[in-house]
Design a protein that fits this description.
about 260 residues, alpha/beta, 7 strands, globular
């Protein structure tokens, strides 16, 4: 009798799983082939302060979600300092996956004034194209992502100073005929709609009082350093990672049909 109860319980669980899947048109993730998605980029992608962890929470368990983004890197220094070599090394081990995708986002540390800046007209787009080409040569699929917007405002208007790098990224994707996720445009529209008060809640820590006061007037100000704080207008806390991770997942569903079944509803 006990064996019968266990069997009946298993049958009942299976029935409800199949029924739920059929009425919601959600594929059973267990039936999907295993794939890998590696993320390459700067701090706005990296663990601890980027959208990468939030994105991984929105994909099936059939996805091996590898975050290889690094803090402080530009499209040049990521290669120069050896991080790209690690990515290429990992791409030599693809046998267990039906496909490997490499998502690539740079721009924040490529801007003028950054220690590892690159030239927007020549060096940055050349770097992006080379990454795409090398991913393809390794038998994987490259996807370019335009840089996440910063969350700075003036008189209630978002200052999206990364748009030129977004344009260069989209141009490189078109030239190499690979998918591009326009995270810059979508994130900028969302943050503009949100406004500075709400946008500040996406940061790593709560804003200091001077930032709170400025946000109420529609502005962003230089973050005070006394006392020290990890608040800024670029990096993400958990709430920001979840918000923008879901945004990237939505972009994937629209731009890459092959990965659409792997995205949670």
């Amino acid at each position: 009798m006990r064996g019968f109860n266990v069997t009946f319980d298993l049958m009942l669980r299976t029935f409800f799983l199949l029924f739920f899947s059929s009425i919601t048109s959600i594929p059973l993730f267990a039936h999907l082939a295993a794939v890998r998605i590696s993320r390459v980029g700067d701090p706005t992608v990296a663990p601890g302060n980027g959208w990468g962890p939030g994105f991984c929470a929105d994909v099936s368990s059939r996805v091996t979600c590898a975050n290889m983004a690094k803090n402080g890197r530009s499209s040049s220094s990521y290669r120069d300092e050896g991080s790209w070599k690690e990515v290429m090394g990992a791409l030599q081990h693809n046998a267990e996956f039906s496909a490997t995708w490499v998502f690539i986002q740079f721009g924040h540390n490529d801007q003028p004034g950054k220690p590892k800046a690159t030239d927007l007209a020549t060096e940055f787009p050349a770097n992006m194209r080379q990454y795409v080409q090398e991913v393809g040569e390794a038998g994987a699929h490259a996807v370019l992502i335009t840089p996440l917007t910063r969350r700075t405002f003036k008189n209630g208007k978002l200052n999206d100073n990364l748009e030129p790098w977004a344009a260069a990224t989209k141009k490189a994707a078109a030239e190499e005929n690979v998918p591009v996720l326009d995270l810059n445009a979508e994130s900028a529209a969302a943050i503009q709609k949100m406004g500075p008060v709400e946008a500040n809640k996406l940061a790593m820590t709560a804003p200091p009082q001077a930032v709170i006061d400025a946000a109420l007037q529609g502005d962003s100000v230089t973050v005070p350093t006394n006392p020290p704080t990890t608040f800024d207008y670029t990096h993400l806390g958990e709430r920001g990672s979840v918000f923008f991770g879901r945004m990237v997942a939505g972009e994937v569903s629209k731009a890459i049909p092959e990965l659409r079944p792997y995205i949670k509803p």
